[in-house]
């Protein structure tokens, strides 16, 4: 059995050369090779192309390289959460390329598998498809995405043996498994290195043949940034809870459900284990439970797509981001419940870009909107300025076309029977006159709707 060299973080950092393409594992700061990234930040290495879901938080992980001016280009799915990334992109300090989260994961997996690229329906008809080759396959418009490989991959695992076999912990797998296959040089930062044989073969997630070097580094609370503890920032009021309860009424026992950020997250507190609804999170978990009652953080618990620590219900499972999005695109998610900025008469959705702000964060929204068997949108009926969100035609950048099945607002519930926007019912306290006055789109009225 081969022995993989064990080196320190500074020796590892020096293996990255000027102009390299660097893959960085992690989802936020979970499963993030933060010690390797910080060691690289102490070198003079520059002109790097960074590839990862996000750059990390401001001053942490890839965020530190960005702040140092070491990055030439960033490629990922969600940079909005790092104000330094937004500023650097707006000022032209860095080039940037935005990919839907599932597309990014699959492009990396394809690169590691020696596949040149693939077609996907995700992002078709949206700004992210502009300039890319498209083709209609099986009656569905699809976008061609080239595969991704790097010169170096920095990844994070929980345990390694001296042969380089890796084991990931909970939702720390995310992008790490695919990235371990997709670079010329792979350096794994791990919590613990054990002798060969101490990791049972069935517990090996990444075989040692993919790994070139091991670095041992102990994770601390400071390394996890805002994922370190449970957030209490959920915005809860009667109107939002009414929408969450109405969305919950659409779910049935056995449904596999993905909850987006905002109002949809409130459903997680309403769902009981007895209801048999299985929550999925795109960063690699099936069977998501409520937030920890003991106030524990990401050192002790998995995290959801909002980077919030959660518990695992009986029968839960963990997997990497590429497998998670294969579930989504493969039609294995029964219902996605997402927030919205605009929905129109043609069932188009816009929910990822706000006017006047840089288009730097799409996450998994495009994949979920296209891939889920049913899409429910929960949103306030109007914007803070009173302008309608249900419109004849979306004016904001599209998330997906023709995908919305049900819209639940604080005033009404709409659907698309026979392809026509139709008012199904009024929400408590709402009147038909108010709905008409605050809805710009033309709609039909079903017999179920109350006067």
Structure description:
InterPro entries: 3-oxoacid_CoA-transf_A, 3-oxoacid_CoA-transf_B, 3-oxoacid_CoA-transferase, CoA_trans_fam_I, NagB/RpiA_transferase-like. This is 3-oxoacid CoA-transferase subunit B. By secondary structure, this protein is of the alpha/beta class. The protein folds into 2 domains: 9-218, Glutaconate Coenzyme A-transferase (3-Layer(aba) Sandwich); 238-445, Glutaconate Coenzyme A-transferase (3-Layer(aba) Sandwich), CATH 3.40.1080. The protein is 17% helix and 25% strand. The chain has 10 helices and 24 strands. It has a 10-stranded mixed beta sheet with strand order 15-14-13-12-16-19-21-22-23-24, with helices on both faces. Strands 1, 2, 3, 4, 8, 9, 10 and 11 form an 8-stranded mixed beta sheet that branches. The longest helix has 12 residues, at 101-112.
- Characterize the main sheet: 10 strands, mixed
From the spread of the alpha carbons, the general shape counts as globular
Share of helix, binned: 10-25%
How many domains in all? 2
Strand order of the largest sheet: 15-14-13-12-16-19-21-22-23-24
Beta-strand residue fraction: 25-35%
Q: Give the overall average pLDDT.
A: 93
Q: Label the structural class.
A: alpha/beta
What's the count of strands? 24
Low-pLDDT windows of residues = none
Protein name: 3-oxoacid CoA-transferase subunit B
Family: Belongs to the 3-oxoacid CoA-transferase subunit B family.
Pfam family, one: CoA_trans
Keywords: Transferase
